[in-house]
Hints:
Helices cover 45% and strands 15% of the residues. It has 3 helices and 3 strands; from the N terminus they run H-E-E-E-H-H. The longest helix has 14 residues, at 50-63. A 3-stranded mixed sheet has the order 1-3-2, covered by helices on one side.
Amino acid sequence: MPFTQGSLAKIEEFFKEQGYKVRYEKGSFRTGACMLQATKVVVVNKFSNLEIKIQSLWNILLDVEIDSEAISEKFLPIYEEILKSKTVA
Length: 89
């Protein structure tokens, strides 16, 4: 996935479709993003550059449970990329 503002927007929309809320906050982050424990809220370091934001959100997508039945046709390519990434890792 290219590191563009459009890619970031697509990932954010994918999270939203899955019932997650993505927030951009300042704080003492050790990584570019984190998921609040036992919630569907992802907090991204608003001071990270675009590449770190995308990589951080992508890594969280690889770890969370995705409801494949809730995926609209628009996001199938992203879901397929996630599945490929999981099998490679």
